[in-house]
Amino acid sequence: MSGANTDLQSQIADAAVRCFRSLSYETVSVNDICKEAGVARSSFYRVFSSKKDVIAYLFEHTDKNQIVTVEELLSAENDFDRMWIIGDRYISLSKELGVEFNAAMMSMTAAGEIDLLSLGHSVDSWFIRLTRNCQKTGIIRSMEPPELLGPLFVDLTYQMIYTWCSKKGNFPLRARARQATEILADVDPAYRWSPEQLANADK
Question: pTM of the predicted model, to two decimals?
């Protein structure tokens, strides 16, 4: 695809996200997206076939491998914090894209049109290694196999995002994800968030 078409795809996709944030996925029309993007319908259909095609494009263009920077990971105090930084990036991305967009992606995943779970589970190998390290240092007190526990953290995050979507965003996503992760891992109390940190997590 030409550079001009790639730029057009990005322009339309960004406009679609803005529309999905303010209106329901079902309510947003191609005309709404075109108006927000400042393009003609013919331009839309030159690069996309439907609203679902826009969502698939956005999913495919989420940078799976550079979800966090090396600097961010090195700045963390311990391996549990490193794991949280990675998981929290998916939470931030979900909040940035909005409830309607995430709900549409979940619906498309259920229909087999995209594989949303592969995005989160692309970091399983990191989570397994970090979980093992945390078990050795006593930060994580659960002695379940890291190969089981690490990927469960990803599944737990998806469950929290699902609940957030089902409650139309009226849910403390970041705080609940952090609490649930600490409970699942049986994190040493010295490494758990304080009530104040939890209260401010979603502000």
Answer: 0.83
